[in-house]
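Q: Given only this backbone (487 positions), what sequence would you predict?
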């Protein structure tokens, strides 16, 4: 009997790297071979065993997880979460269109000097609010005061000349009247001389007077006729002088009127040395400072004033609403609101003052302009604001609170409570919104009960507990807002 643990002197075991023991030293001894597993084979076996164990564990975990989810889903479906509901009603909802508007000044005035001179005074600060008639600038008035005084002196001289010419006319008129009286007297004397000549001629024939006396009477009559002609020529000459003096009056009067016009122009020029605000508004930056020389009608304005009370907002609306807009403008039912910084509580109301006569073909919109009183100065030129245009409803429609709307892959959807208090998730067509109300075009009927709060914990088919019911439709959002500024 051979014991494996005892080494035979004739046989010695050798272990190779391949794990095979062999004894080649004794040729006649029996060979004993022992085969062992290598390290690589052991590793592969271990990995296979580990994979089988992992797979079995994963399968068991997934099965347990699915069982847990199914259990949780069943529990969630079994519970009845509380919700707030409202009943859909049919009513008229105004048409509300929103846009972005740009605030524009009601009027912009560039203040330009109308006379030249040195700018001696600036009476406002940049950005100051000014009233119509407030003094803004003053240009050196001394040259214009001197021109006015000179014109006033010329008018005084012309007035004296007119008075002198009128005095001459009065004197000439008196002279004409005197000469006319002389002519009348000479005519009477000539008639007397003529009568005497005739009488003396008869007396000569009778021998009562001499021929010398009769000839003297004839000479006197002829002299009287000549005197009459001379006096008539004197009257004509004096009338010509009178007419000349009347012409002198007209000339002096014309010069007087011209110099009065010079006075008026000088007064206007002097008045332009004080530049006053033509309107109520707010000044911009000062372009020319005190001490500079300015020119009449220069291209650079001294300052720009913008009128902001009232004020305009310009905006555009889609051409699809053009007919409704025109109808509402004609009926005076169009309402325009501007939301300051998008805040509904901070809104102002205005009136449409302009509708563009063409549609912009590039954008498919029509431009509009609304006027706002801006009494609280909330609107500022260049500012962008949200504009809400409201028009009368185009007919009754199904209305629910806007909070009932949910967004899904199918679009707008609403949870509808069934008679057994289970909920159904249905797709609806949103026609428009107005404040916190939503007008539904299709998918919902009046009288349907919709969930308005608590939708996040719902799933289709789940039963709910109605915790609160909204009675009727809520008022528009601006119902609780403070009074808005109106035109």
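A: Predicted residues:
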């Amino acid at each position: 009997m051979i014991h494996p643990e005892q080494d035979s002197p004739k046989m010695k075991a050798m272990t190779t790297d391949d794990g095979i023991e062999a004894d080649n030293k004794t040729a006649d001894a029996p060979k004993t071979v022992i085969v062992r597993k290598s390290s690589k084979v052991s590793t592969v076996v271990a990995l296979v065993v580990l994979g089988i164990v992992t797979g079995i564990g994963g399968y068991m975990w997934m099965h347990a997880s699915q069982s847990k989810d199914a259990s949780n889903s069943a529990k969630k479906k079994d519970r009845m979460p509380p919700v707030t509901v409202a009943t859909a009603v049919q009513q008229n909802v105004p048409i509300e269109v929103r846009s972005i508007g740009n605030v524009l000044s009601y009027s912009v005035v560039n203040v330009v000097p109308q006379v030249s001179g040195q700018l001696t005074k600036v009476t406002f600060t940049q950005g100051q609010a000014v009233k119509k008639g407030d003094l803004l600038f003053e240009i050196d008035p001394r040259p214009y005061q001197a021109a006015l005084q000179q014109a006033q002196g010329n008018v005084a001289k012309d007035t004296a000349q007119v008075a002198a010419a009128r005095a001459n006319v009065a004197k000439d008129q008196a002279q004409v009247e005197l000469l006319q009286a002389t002519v009348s007297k000479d005519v009477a004397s000539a008639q007397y001389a003529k009568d005497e000549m005739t009488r003396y001629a008869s007396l000569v024939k009778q021998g009562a007077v001499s021929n010398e006396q009769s000839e003297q009477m004839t000479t006197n009559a002829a002299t009287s006729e000549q005197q009459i002609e001379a006096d008539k020529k004197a009257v004509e000459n004096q009338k010509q002088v009178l007419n000349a003096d009347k012409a002198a009056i007209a000339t002096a009067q014309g010069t007087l009127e011209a110099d009065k016009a010079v006075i008026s122009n000088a007064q206007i020029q002097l008045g332009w040395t004080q530049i006053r605000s033509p309107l109520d508004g707010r000044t911009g930056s000062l372009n020319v400072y005190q001490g500079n020389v300015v020119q009449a009608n220069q291209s650079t304005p001294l300052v720009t004033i913008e009128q902001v009370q009232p004020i305009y907002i310009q905006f555009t609306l889609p051409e699809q609403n053009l007919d409704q807009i025109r109808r509402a403008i004609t009926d005076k039912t169009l309402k325009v609101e501007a939301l300051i910084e998008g805040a509904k509580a901070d809104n102002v109301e205005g009136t449409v003052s302009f509708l563009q006569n063409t549609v912009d073909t590039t954008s498919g919109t029509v431009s509009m302009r609304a006027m706002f009183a801006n009494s609280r100065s909330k609107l500022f030129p260049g500012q962008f604001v949200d504009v809400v245009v409201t028009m009368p409803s185009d007919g009754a429609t199904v209305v629910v609170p806007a909070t009932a709307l949910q967004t899904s892959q199918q679009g707008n959807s609403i949870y509808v409570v069934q008679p057994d208090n289970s909920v159904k998730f249905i797709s609806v067509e949103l026609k428009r919104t107005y404040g916190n109300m939503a007008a539904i075009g299709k998918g919902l009927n009046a009288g349907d009960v919709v969930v308005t709060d608590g939708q996040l914990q719902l799933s289709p088919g789940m039963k709910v507990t109605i915790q609160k019911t909204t009675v009727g439709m809520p008022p528009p959002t601006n119902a609780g807002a403070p009074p808005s500024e109106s035109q």
